[in-house]
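The records we work with from here on pair a chain with its fold. These numbers are not coordinates but entries in a learned vocabulary of local backbone shapes. To see the layout at work, look at the sequence and tokens printed below.
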Amino acid sequence: MNPYQLLDIEFEYSGQQQIITPVLLQDERDTILVDCGYPDFVPLLEAAVNKHGVTLRSLTKLIITHHDMDHIGSLAALKRAYPYISIIAHEIETPSIEGKTKSKRLEQAESTFDALPEESKPQAEQFIKFLQSIEPAAVDQTVSGGEWLPWCGGIEIIYTPGHTPGHMSLYLPASKTLIAGDAVVIEQGRLEIANPQYTLNLPEAVHSVQRLLEYDIEQVVCYHGGLFHGDVKEALQQLVHAYQS
């Protein structure tokens, strides 16, 4: 059995066709979903997992790479429908996911609002209201960088901050696979920093990419872009060099 499956979910957002790629991990005991899309994505997730002979009801765990609306939007709905699913997130992101603190993305949107040109403010207001509407959900298990999770052949948590303060990626050593979340994305066949203009700490994000070079990675799965095709180490080195030169 392949230890992971890519769930390519196509949808329309802001008038554009988009694709996100949550990941399904499986072994004899666990069925684990990594990230869960925008709000109201439960039907799309159900259809995606059904293609692999799985139902959402069979999920045992849900790992969240970070607090962003396209990664946690359906978290509360899933937890409400299937309360036995264990939610796992990085300790730094957990207060925002649970609604105990304001998310950094919302803080960013609010702090830059006054500097926007007047014609951009209506759209920014709509975006802020959308971020405010993201429903919080309780996290069952917090993790930190370097932690080992003994599920689905073993999962190492890699702390990859920058995009958000508590962003994490998952390393599957058995298949030498990195589930990158938004630590990197694929654009025109290349690995890139995700939305560098909105990355909360760009130097830290680049340092996180550099940290990934310490791992023996043969495959990278990006939430935006899917499976990377090419020499992973060379692509990561090129990305770091592009920002350091």
Observations:
- The helical segments are 42-50, 69-72, 75-81, 94-97, 104-111, 121-133, 202-212, 232-244.
- The domain at 4-244 is CATH 3.60.15.10 (Metallo-beta-lactamase; Chain A).
- The longest helix spans residues 121-133.
